Amino acid sequence: MTEPCLETVATEDLTEHDAHQAEALVRAVFGSEFEPHDWVHALGGTHVLARLDGLVIAHAAAVPRLLVHDGKEIDGRYVEAVAVDSDRRGTGLGRIVLDRLEAVIEDEGALGVLNSLPGAIGFWEGRGWVRWRGLLGVVGNGEDPRPPADGENVMVFRPPSSIDVEGTLCVNNRVGPRW
């Protein structure tokens, strides 16, 4: 059996063909839960693609987002559009793609952030992600930060000692869910 080929590419260097394949994969995996704006959230950063015989069979992206932790700006990378073709789940392909994406986040000196599906929290914790237990907010919208709402399972990747996961974390606003 042929091994998948991994590729790390910036959004601006994605071919139209690869972008369409990656989006179709993510939409197939998440179905109707994947809103029209969700693919837009995955653009503007770094993508890791796993390809087999020219077909994108796994994808994950890390997109720059401004974070503010207890009043201090932090360079963030928000993980988006993580998907593995249904025929290849359980093969370790997702782990391989995420290993590469997490290495990119660390190499860029950024804080990795994501909003986990409830059933995947243990998966992410096993990879070194830590659940945010403090307040969450949006930069500059005038609202006071608040405890995580239903559906907000915000996690950060291997937070350094300077990051207090019981503190306040705010993110720049966007269309759709903030987290």
Automatic annotation (TrEMBL):
- GO MF entries: acyltransferase activity, transferring groups other than amino-acyl groups
Query: Which residue intervals define the domain N-acetyltransferase in the entry?
Result: 9-160
Looking up Pfam families in the UniProt record yields:
Acetyltransf_1
Cite the entry's keywords alphabetically. Answer: Transferase
Q: Which domain of life is it from?
A: Bacteria
UniProt protein name: Aminoglycoside 2'-N-acetyltransferase I
Which species is the source of this protein?
A: Rhodococcoides kroppenstedtii
